[in-house]
Automatic annotation (TrEMBL):
Organism in which the protein naturally occurs: Thermocatellispora tengchongensis
Keyword Signal recorded: no
Domain of life: Bacteria
Entry protein name: Pyridoxal 5-phosphate dependent beta-lyase
Swiss-Prot/TrEMBL cofactor(s): pyridoxal 5'-phosphate
Length: 389
């Protein structure tokens, strides 16, 4: 099988798989608690990838089980007062939009749509004009259903100048395109896509000093301690009346009971990415994306969904304009590619209902993909249109 679905789930390297099996053996030998790995290097590496050193007074990074869990912990705990306005674009990831709708209803927040252009690229003038009314901006650097890279450096600059916190979803961008100049308040990411880690790990990066901007964020579950108290009598009273105190910064969001082997594997993946050189990785992936659009655009009438030179390796293909049943066409193309040993993805409209007019095919080659893989896929797509005629 040739894997061209990095945006869905990449295939971890032998080194990553070995780190996980080694960890499980170690747990067998010394016990799970004693085997717990030191994840400080992974935390420092993730902070470095978003352009920061470790904050002096907090870990800066929390590990959870997925990007969705990290976003849920962060936004679900954010104590925005009723009447607050959260800015999102129409292409925001479906589960984030669902979460925000739910929170808006429960807490009296409002969602405001940040305008975008025809490629769903955020309109910076539009954002600038509405920032005065916003209390929070949530943005995916790259969406799951479109390979367009959002202008996050400019978004970050505008948000900081206006004093509006910005949450950046980097699930599709970290390990894929540069993230370092965004200067966001918090970043939400996932292991198994462009960073090449295993399934079952997500993370939250909070580079700022603990309890500054995020002072008001209190997780629904996770890291708390009791208020300091030496007196047993008032300690008993406090159990029912005093609020537990959240741990400093990102630590409050981390889940402690988890498949630790996956975190150990992810640590190796992140450190290998740093060792390989993020700049070289970004350049290679941008080149693969351009090559894929060049080879696949027009094959069998499928059309690339991004500008040809968009610097990402997340390539979407829209069904030919006259396709009677786009959903069936996308599903059939994906299945025929799989029969030809090419793993690609189909993205349903439900992934971004306000942005996608039809389902699309998604081709997202990993570093090791070749021109031959892409030409083989073009032949699969072209054969489909012959069969129809
Ligand atoms: C995959 C993805 C997520 C969610 O990550 P999970 O680890 O699958 O929960 C969020 N946002 C975007 C843009 C994604 O592509």
């Amino acid at each position: 099988m040739r894997f061209l679905d990095t945006a869905g789930c990449s295939v971890p390297s032998d080194r990553v798989v070995r780190a996980m099996t080694d960890h499980l053996r170690h747990e067998q030998e010394v016990g799970g608690y004693a085997a717990a790995p030191d994840l400080t290097p992974a935390r420092a590496a993730l902070l470095a990838l978003v352009g920061h050193g470790p904050p002096a007074d907090a870990p800066g990074v929390a590990f959870l089980e997925s990007g969705t869990a990290a976003m849920g912990a962060l936004l679900g705990g954010w104590r925005l007062p009723a009447g607050s306005v959260v800015g999102v674009t129409r292409g925001e990831y479906a589960s984030t939009l669902m979460l925000l709708r739910h929170l808006a209803r429960a807490r009296g927040w409002r969602l405001a749509e940040i305008p975008v252009d025809g490629h769903a690229r955020l309109d910076l003038d539009g954002l600038g004009a509405m920032l005065g009314r916003l209390d929070l901006v949530v943005l995916s650097h790259i969406a799951s259903h479109r390979g367009v890279v959002q202008p996050v450096a400019e978004v970050g600059r505008l948000c900081r100048a206006a004093g509006v916190p910005c949450v950046l979803d980097v699930c599709q961008s970290l390990g894929h395109v540069p993230v370092g100049d965004a200067g966001a308040t918090a970043y939400v990411g996932t292991s198994r896509k462009w960073l090449g880690g295993p399934r079952g790990v997500g993370f939250l990066i909070m580079p700022g000093p603990a309890d500054a901007e995020m002072q008001a964020a209190v997780p629904a579950l996770g890291g708390y301690t009791w208020p300091p108290d030496d007196d047993a009598g008032s300690r008993r009273a406090a159990l029912l009346s005093a609020d537990p105190v959240p741990l400093a910064g990102a630590a409050r969001y981390e889940t402690s009971e988890t498949a630790v082997a996956a975190r150990a594997g992810f640590q190796v993946a992140v450190l290998d990415h740093l060792r390989l050189g993020p700049e070289a990785v970004h350049a290679r992936l941008a080149g693969l994306g351009a090559m894929a659009r060049n080879i696949l655009d027009g094959a069998g009438g499928w059309r690339a969904g991004e500008p040809p030179d968009e610097p990402s390796a997340l390539v979407t293909l829209l069904p030919p304009p006259d396709t009677p049943d786009p959903e069936a066409a996308v599903e059939e193309a994906r299945a025929r590619a799989a029969e030809a040993s090419l793993r690609i993805a189909s993205v349903p409209v439900a992934r971004a209902p306000a942005d996608l007019a039809t389902p699309v095919l998604r081709v997202s080659p990993p570093l090791g993909a070749t021109e031959d893989d892409l030409r083989a896929l073009a032949r699969v797509l072209a054969a489909r249109s012959h069969a129809v005629r």
